[in-house]
Design goal:
The complex is a heterotrimer of chains A (148), B (246) and C (67). Chain A has 148 residues and is α+β, with helices and mostly antiparallel strands. Chain A has 3 helices and 6 strands, in the order ααββββββα. Chain C has 2 helices and no strands. The chains are: A alpha+beta (148), B mainly alpha (246), C mainly alpha (67).
Chain lengths: 148, 246, 67
């Protein structure tokens, strides 16, 4: 074997080893790398008690209620299996809408509701003009009524 | 193999001198077309409105920051394996441009995140791993400049480039592997989630970034070659010829 | 055509600061990189040719010749 081939072999082995160890490390830390917990995690008690954490999911359709003070907002965050009511006082981002994704940071209250100190909107990867979106929504609606 | 001819610093120096202006022109033309599409052809987004137009900088910059790092790792592997000095020079020449695009991806992401998500920054897996990439670029630049012995500097830089390359798939797949604030990829091999004109604009801007990066790296590598090869005869002649004009 | 007027173009649907902040910084950094690149070439040539003049007769030493 030529010295050059040997060196390549060493480099290859080194990189492979690194890749494997990185995979293992990342796997081990998998649970710590999540940015938010889902409502199911919360209901299953997988969240830290009395500590701040983030909860993420969909804002349930029609659940957004603004209190008369104009600042406090109540809504329900859901992962379609479990739901958690959220209370938040402050300004909401542009893309916060019911039926869309959101991530809230805060604490669980004694009664099982979530008191948020920050609410972020999580949007999807789809980009299209309004006309196209209207067409897509219409097609979806049609498909749903057909199935019924 | 004839390709090995280009591993001669002298041949590569003159080749780079010929190719750089061509790539520069291509970059300028593509950027002009891409910007026109970005602002005048691509439609308003239904959900985000006009602010989504940041995508035409953000996505190409993020892609470029990953591609350049992979290119640096590639040249480093070749350099370590074949002992070709030019490979190390090329890796070193790419680093500042990679850092630039990496910073731009983070910067435009912050300015885009604020109005849409409600925050400039979040420590989610995508953003954290992209920030790590910026530090890897800085580490590479700092280390290769800090080590006096040029050959040891080359090797140290190559090791950072190869080890750090592990981070690239982590950045790319972070939105799949973990739940993140950052949304999934709009464009991948299995599905495209943007309308045509948006896609074309993004691709043309990405090609412009490629051409720009190649042009800039080729110009930079010429300075590095002269610096490192200054004691060879051909470089001495070139320095004597060009130095009088500088 | 997406814009009725220049001011609508600048306003970007009320998000002009974010859009132009992105494009502006990108442009500024690219210009800065191109400028430092031209400076680097000039400085390198200047420094190396001065070095060459200082030890002119060592010019033919070829200690970095290899592979």
């Amino acid at each position: 074997m030529k010295a050059r081939h040997k060196r390549f072999l060493w480099i290859g082995a080194g990189v492979a080893l690194l890749a494997i160890s990185a995979t293992l490390v990342l796997n081990a830390f998998n649970d710590n790398l999540v940015f938010f917990q889902t409502p199911s995690d919360v209901v299953d008690g997988k969240v830290p008690k009395g500590r701040n954490f983030r909860i993420g999911g969909m804002v349930e359709k029609g659940s957004v209620q603004r209190a008369p003070d104009g600042l406090t907002v109540h809504f329900v965050i859901t992962d379609t299996v479990k739901s958690i009511p959220v209370t938040y006082k402050g300004a909401l981002p542009d893309l916060f809408k019911d039926g869309k994704g959101a991530v809230a940071q805060g604490k669980l209250d004694a009664d099982g509701s979530f008191i948020a100190s920050e609410v972020l909107a999580k949007h999807d990867e789809n980009y299209m003009p309004p006309e196209a979106k209207a067409a897509v929504d219409k097609a979806r609606e049609a498909a749903r009524t057909m199935r019924r | 193999m004839n390709l090995f001819k280009f591993s001669s610093p002298q041949t590569f120096y003159s080749l780079a001198g010929k190719l750089a202006p061509a790539f520069g022109v291509i970059a300028a033309v593509l950027a002009a077309i891409g910007l026109y599409i970005s602002f005048f052809v691509a439609p308003t987004d239904a959900v985000q409105g006009e602010v989504y137009r940041i995508i035409f900088i953000h996505v190409p910059a993020a892609w470029m920051s990953m591609v350049i790092y992979l290119a640096m790792a590639f040249w480093s592997a070749i350099g370590l394996g074949l002992g070709t000095r030019v490979s190390f020079y090329m890796s070193k020449a790419l680093a500042p441009t990679g850092a630039l695009f990496c910073f731009l991806a983070l910067w435009t992401g912050a300015l885009w995140g604020r109005p849409t998500w409600g925050t400039y920054w979040a420590w989610d897996a995508r953003m954290t791993s992209q920030l790590l990439l910026l530090f890897l670029y800085f580490g590479h630049i700092a280390l290769t400049n800090a080590i006096e012995d040029a050959r040891r500097a080359d090797k140290a830089g190559a090791i950072i480039a190869l080890v750090g390359a592990v981070n690239i798939p982590v950045i790319y797949f972070s939105v799949k592997w973990w739940n993140t604030l950052h949304q999934g990829s709009s464009i991948n091999l299995t599905k495209i989630s943007v309308v045509n004109t948006m896609l074309i604009g993004m691709l043309i801007m990405a090609l412009a970034a490629w051409a720009y990066s190649i042009a800039v790296a080729l110009v930079r590598v010429r300075s590095i070659i002269l610096e490192r090869e200054r004691r060879t005869e051909w470089a001495g002649v070139e320095i004597a010829a060009q130095g009088g004009r500088a | 055509m997406n814009w009725d007027s220049l001011s609508a173009f600048i306003d970007m649907g009320g998000r002009g600061a974010f859009v132009w902040g992105s494009y502006g910084v990108t442009l500024a950094l690219i210009v800065a990189e191109l400028w430092t690149l031209s400076q680097r070439r000039r400085d390198t040539l200047r420094r190396l040719s001065r070095l060459q003049q200082l030890n002119g007769d060592e010019l033919n030493g070829n200690d970095s010749q290899s592979s």
